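dumping this here so i dont lose it
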């Protein structure tokens, strides 16, 4: 009986082999049927993700090709209990709306005249904080205190400047600046939302450094790639500072949730906004998420400013952040106004094709500056926020 069982098993094995040999063609042509993902690693706020894209034969499943694909760092931190679950960064505005209404000192107040909204490098790093080599999706470095820091090689406008800590700013030295909530003033509020103005000089940028001078016409023209021929250098629509506000600043200062709360705005750039009865350098209206304020706004008493442009006005005075000082912003060094800076308006000057209106360190809004200034003037952004 045992012998018969062995013979049966041997016959069965032979039969299976014969079936395989007759049913499979070892010389078949492999054909890929789509691709599959393998070895997936998810992207985080501090590291790229990756996966293998594999093509296999639809008949024999042989691997025909394999390529490794990368996934960009995720463009947000995922917070749990006030900390990012990947890198441990501290949530700067722990509010489901993405902004915090507050008093001027930052204390929460549902009826406050200020909001904390977005975040940007501002204050120079404290001595007791150590910066790690962990970088998030924005290129900021994680500090030992749980906050992120931006590294800057200092290029102060003048020598002898100090940070708010009293430390001298040394040209070409590298400093780290804490990424903090941005404080904004509410200057107009209605059922559609709030018009808000940054409450400090957040950075310094050239208005329009790409230009050419037509000596025959005596006119300065912008030479940025998307500007039509004979676009004046002080044209806001094609200015470098507008492009920066609606691209780099908009992307890096606000989370996805916060960007969804910013109202796209038709920005008026007509003659009436410039403070002159006629102005040959006005441009068309623009559609912006973030914009520079107009001369009309900063001379309107209903918005909390002096109606007289040449008056000294504390409401128009803006303190430069430590970050802006390191990036080349001009600031006042007299004792009374130390740290106050000049900042751009979007309004062109009426007489010269290369000049733009500005607010000086004392709050005087009657002056203008050359649009080609590299980084002398500061940036005080404005936007419209959807309140909840």
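and the seq i came up w/
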């Amino acid at each position: 009986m045992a012998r018969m069982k062995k013979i049966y098993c041997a016959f069965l094995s032979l039969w299976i082999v014969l079936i395989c040999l007759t049913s499979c063609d070892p010389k078949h042509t492999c054909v890929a049927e789509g691709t599959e993902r393998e070895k997936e690693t998810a992207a985080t706020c501090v590291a790229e993700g990756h996966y293998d894209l594999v093509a296999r034969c639809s008949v024999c499943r042989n691997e025909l090709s394999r390529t490794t694909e990368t996934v960009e760092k995720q463009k947000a931190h995922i917070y749990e209990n006030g900390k990012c679950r990947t890198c441990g960064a501290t949530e700067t505005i722990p509010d489901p709306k993405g902004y915090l209404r507050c008093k001027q000192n930052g204390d929460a107040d549902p009826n406050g005249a200020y909001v904390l909204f977005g975040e940007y490098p501002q204050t120079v790093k404290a001595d007791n904080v150590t910066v790690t080599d962990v970088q998030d999706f924005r290129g900021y470095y994680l500090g030992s205190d749980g906050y992120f820091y931006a590294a800057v090689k200092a290029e102060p406008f003048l020598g002898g400047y100090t940070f708010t800590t009293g430390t001298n700013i040394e040209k070409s030295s590298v400093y780290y600046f804490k990424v903090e909530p941005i404080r904004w003033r509410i200057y107009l509020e209605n059922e559609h939302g709030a018009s808000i103005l940054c409450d400090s000089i957040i950075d310094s940028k050239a208005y329009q450094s790409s230009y050419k001078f037509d000596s025959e016409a005596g006119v300065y023209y912008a030479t940025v790639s998307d500007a039509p021929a004979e676009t004046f250098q002080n044209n806001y629509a094609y200015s470098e500072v507008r492009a920066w506000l609606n691209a780099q600043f908009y992307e890096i200062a606000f989370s996805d949730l916060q960007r969804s709360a910013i109202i796209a705005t038709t920005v008026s750039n007509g003659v009436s906004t410039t403070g002159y009865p006629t102005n040959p350098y006005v441009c068309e209206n623009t559609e912006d998420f973030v914009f520079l304020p107009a001369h009309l706004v900063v001379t309107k008493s209903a918005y909390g400013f002096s109606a007289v442009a040449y008056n000294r006005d504390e409401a128009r005075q803006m303190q430069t952040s430590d970050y802006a000082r390191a990036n080349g912003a001009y600031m006042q060094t007299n004792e009374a106004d130390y740290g106050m800076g000049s900042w751009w308006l979007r309004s062109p000057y009426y007489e010269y094709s290369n000049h733009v209106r500005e607010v000086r360190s004392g709050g005087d809004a009657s002056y203008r500056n050359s649009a080609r200034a590299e980084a002398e003037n500061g940036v005080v952004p404005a936007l419209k926020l959807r309140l909840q």
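The chain has one domain: 79-385.
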